[in-house]
Amino acid sequence: MPITFVAEPVRVRVPATSANLGPGFDALGLALALHDDVAAEVTAEGVTVTVTGEGAADLPVDDGHLVVRAMRATFDALGGQPPGLAVECANRIPQARGLGSSSAAIVAGVLLARALVTEGDSRLDDDAVLRLAAEIEGHPDNVAPCLLGGFTLAWTEPTGARAVSLQVADGVRPTVLVPAERGLTASARAALPATVPHGDAAFNAGRAALLVHALTAQPGLLLPATADRLHQNYRAASMSGTSALVNGLREAGVAAVVSGAGPTVLALSDLPVDFDAGTDWRLLRLPVDVCGAQVERGRLKHAERDPVAAGRKS
Ligand SMILES: Nc1ncnc2c1ncn2[C@@H]1O[C@H](COP(=O)(O)OP(=O)(O)OP(=O)(O)O)[C@@H](O)[C@H]1O
Ligand SMILES: N[C@@H](CCO)C(=O)O
């Protein structure tokens, strides 16, 4: 059937995510209640992108923008490109910090493109959305919680990514500590060795399994359950402040890990009452987002933007 497009604008709210959670490298992830809002509509020609908030000063505002790239890939998968596109982003997720900003942009793009195609849901079902978004991102551990919400276990089969979402136990209160400096996932992945000792792989397998139990049923086990030997130490040299903070918090009994590829620190249990992050870290207590990405018909309303987000129109 030839592709046709929906005339009205669509919008999507996508959560920040924290991947790995210590031992669950490339598999486990958690959705956090900090969101980007992205709206899009089909136009007669060209591409316009408007960005406010995070990244407003440096993101591309043309076909190079990651939301647009994900939309293009999705339109191809659906059967054809629209004549033109207008995209409006209100960003709150800090970028290149380990909070899943790229997955949020990709999930937003895939869901927006699907919603802009007539009967898009039947051409590309939810399982196919996960597969496509994970393929664009390269791994599924941020994409899965961004789409599904909650605590997700993601894995890849020959046909592509799959995931399940589990409910987090009461008493899990995530806090993120976000530094000013950025760290790109691609550089962090380049720091990993091609092989690891069998004992380290066995250690992580046990701790990742324990983490599923700790996060869903017994948060008192979060400290041993978040220990990792597969990635954090290999990356420590490129984020010494992050590594020192994680180690210091863990010595104080806090279940702290590197969030995603870093350099943000994620604490899954409460910080000491006298904890002072200092001026180098932005501390955000973020509840778990249990909904995942939410699509709505209609333009992003100005009043719904973060009032502190500095505006830039391009
Ligand atoms: N909202 C966005 N709109 C457009 N591009 C984005 C957006 N967010 C991130 N990006 C692109 O993705 C890059 C960051 O991706 P990267 O995977 O390195 O970090 P991250 O996704 O924030 O962290 P992690 O994957 O470790 O959780 C940015 O430098 C930018 O190029
Ligand atoms: N599992 C990924 C998450 C960041 O995208 C990594 O640590 O490289």
From TrEMBL:
Residues 66-150 form the GHMP kinase N-terminal domain. The lineage of its organism: Bacteria, Bacillati, Actinomycetota, Actinomycetes, Micromonosporales. It catalyses: L-homoserine + ATP = O-phospho-L-homoserine + ADP + H(+). The gene is thrB. PANTHER family: HOMOSERINE KINASE (PTHR20861:SF1), HOMOSERINE/4-DIPHOSPHOCYTIDYL-2-C-METHYL-D-ERYTHRITOL KINASE (PTHR20861). One of its GO terms (molecular function) is kinase activity. HAMAP family: Homoser_kinase (MF_00384). Pfam families: GHMP_kinases_C, GHMP_kinases_N. Its EC number is 2.7.1.39. Catalyzes the ATP-dependent phosphorylation of L-homoserine to L-homoserine phosphate. Residues 227-269 form the GHMP kinase C-terminal domain. Coiled coil: none annotated. Keywords: Amino-acid biosynthesis, ATP-binding, Cytoplasm, Kinase, Nucleotide-binding, Threonine biosynthesis, Transferase. It comes from the Bacteria. This is Homoserine kinase. It comes from Micromonospora lutea. It is found in: Cytoplasm. Pathway: Amino-acid biosynthesis; L-threonine biosynthesis; L-threonine from L-aspartate: step 4/5. Belongs to the GHMP kinase family. Homoserine kinase subfamily.
